[in-house]
Every structure is written in C-alpha cells, then in structure tokens.
Design the sequence.
C-alpha cells in the first residue's frame, strides 16, 4: 500500500504566504481570517490527494475537550 | 523542555523531541476554568488513559511512549508521547442517546444526520454504536458535526473508512469492558494522527471522564436524565448557583469537590480494577 501523504495545514499557509511575498505581494497570514486560511489549505491538500494534518499544539484540545463538550453537552 | 501551549486544563511541552502532555487538577465547564481544583483529577485521568492505551494497543497503535519517564514535578499526571501529525477530524462514537443528540433526535429523528428508529428516549441504548465526526476549527470557534461523506472528501475514502471503523471498534471494546465493571460509556471522543512512518495512531487521551460520558450501569433507566459519573456532575452543580456561564466561574464548595473526586476515583477503580493510591 502506498505511504499516506500528509502535510501540515498551517505550514502550507506559511509556505504560500512566503511564496507570494517572494513574488512581490503582501499576504496577511493569521489574524481574523486564520480559520478561513486553514480551511482553504486543508481543502487544497485534500483536492490534491494529500491528507491535511495539524501540529499537536494546534490540534490537541487542552481546554477540557471544549469542542466535544460543546457539541455533546451544549457547553 | 519547551512549553508549547497552555490550556485551561492541560499543558503541552516538547522534551527531547517528544511531547509531554501534562494534565492539571483544574476543571473547565461551559468553556470556563473554575477557580477550585479537584485534587488528583489530573493524575486520575492520566492514569486511566494510560490503562486504556495499553489495553487497546492490539486494535490500534497509540502515541504513548512512557507514563513514568516524565519530570518529577509532573509525576503521574503526565505522559511522554510521540508527536503526531493530527487529523482535522474529531471522532465521536455514541452508544446511547443523550445531550444535544437527544434534542436533535426529538426534532429530526436523527443524530448528526444519522437516522435512528422511532421510539427512543433519553438515555436509550442505540441499536448499534454510531460514528458522528466533527471538524476542528470553524467560523463559530467550535467544532461542527460533519457527515461521513464530508470526512471522505477531506481525508479520502480509505482513511475515512479506517477512522470510522477504528472509532466504533475502540468504543465497542471499551464500552464492553466498562459495562462488565458497572459503567456505561454513553459516548466518547477519539483523536487520531499520523506518526513519522505515516501510521495511523491514536492520540490525546482515551476514554476518560473528560472525553466521555459515563453513567453507573446499575442506575441506568431510559426516559430520564442519567446519574453522571463524569464532568456533568460539576456542570449540573454550577447551574444551581445562578452562574451565567461567563468568567469568572464560581468557586466549588468542599462537598462538591469531594463528591467529584470520588466520582473520578470510582470510575478509575471500576474500569481498571485497581485501587487508587491517592
């Protein structure tokens, strides 16, 4: 079975911002649009057949599983 | 040792290329960390998770490297683990009808879009466990339920099927063991990632009172709210105080602290069969 290809979505956002800056543009990674950028990066990777990944510090819910609590318990 | 992230309940460090996941005694409800710690909570959840990791390792590899090779100040409440490239999907398994799932079922006859037979009530056991994934990061700042087809689009069919099958298998095995020992696992959440060899790996913490809904089996009675063995107990108490669910949270009185600690301890002892040496 071929090895699964994975790429970290925040890294892709940074890579793209760097590339665009090299081409004379002034991208604004992060900020209020950070979620949109991550979602778009994940969509791009998926469409290219690459599994989008997240670094542990971006993925692990260290706030008491707040997302699970919100979705399951209404927190 | 490098501090990577401080959460309301846990902290993440990097240590010699590994990750150190440290659980505190803090408790967070309605996304607010309460000012009163629950003694031993961090150690109880960590040790329970370690016990599950070992028990479930025949089903799926996990990120645990060591629960003992940790800095002394974090002893028993930290694990050293492999850094994973984490999935953007949180994998929730449900075996019973409760919480927001109950509300959706009463309104639409579904839970996270999964159709269920009529006649179920609060606390009912589902005909079979269901996979209800959520995605991380959204415009609302909270996870949002997604369908299995969404997971296929995001992760690819093969990975999506593996996530679904592993989630149900781990939940089923865990729920079966817990039920034999007097605890119903109504629902739970798993997180997976890829290790450096691209092996799908179970991460985070597993089948704990913070990441699951636990009920005592001998008091289970569909048709009413269930007695909670998990964080729901603190949640329910907090609402009796008139608190508006915004910071700062209320201080927890001694009797509630004691009762909460007893619940966490009872869960640990029932599931592991080992006495908690607090």
Sequence:
């Amino acid at each position: 079975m071929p090895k699964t290809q994975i790429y970290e979505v925040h890294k892709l956002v940074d890579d793209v911002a760097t590339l665009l800056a090299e081409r004379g543009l002034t991208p604004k990674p992060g900020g209020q649009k950070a979620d949109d950028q991550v979602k778009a990066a994940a969509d791009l990777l998926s469409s290219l057949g690459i599994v989008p990944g997240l670094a542990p510090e971006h993925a692990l819910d260290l706030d008491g599983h707040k997302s699970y609590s919100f979705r399951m318990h209404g927190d | 040792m490098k501090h990577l992230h401080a959460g309301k309940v846990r902290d993440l460090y990097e240590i010699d290329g590994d990750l150190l996941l440290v659980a505190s005694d803090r408790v967070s409800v309605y996304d607010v960390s309460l000012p009163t710690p629950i003694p031993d909570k961090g150690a109880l959840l960590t040790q329970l998770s370690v016990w599950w990791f070992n028990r479930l390792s025949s089903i799926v590899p996990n990120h645990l490297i060591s629960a003992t090779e940790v800095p002394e100040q974090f002893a028993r409440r930290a694990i050293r683990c492999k850094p994973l490239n984490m999935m953007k999907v949180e994998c929730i398994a449900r075996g019973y009808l409760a919480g927001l799932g109950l509300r959706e079922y009463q309104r639409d006859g579904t839970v996270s879009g999964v159709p269920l037979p009529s006649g179920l009530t609060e606390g009912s056991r589902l005909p079979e466990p269901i996979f209800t994934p959520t995605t991380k990061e959204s415009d609302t700042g909270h996870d949002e339920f997604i369908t299995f087809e969404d997971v296929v689009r995001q992760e690819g069919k093969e990975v999506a099927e593996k996530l679904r099958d592993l989630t149900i298998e781990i939940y089923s095995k865990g729920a079966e063991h817990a039920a034999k020992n007097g605890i119903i696992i109504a629902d739970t959440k798993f997180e997976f990632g890829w290790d450096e060899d691209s092996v799908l790996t179970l991460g985070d913490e597993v089948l704990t009172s913070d990441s699951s809904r636990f009920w005592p089996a001998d008091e289970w009675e569909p048709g009413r709210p269930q007695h909670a063995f998990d964080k729901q107990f603190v949640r329910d108490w907090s609402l009796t105080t008139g608190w508006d669910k915004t910071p700062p949270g209320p201080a927890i009185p001694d009797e509630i602290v004691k009762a909460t600690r007893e619940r966490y301890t009872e869960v640990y002892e029932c599931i592991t069969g080992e006495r908690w040496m607090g």
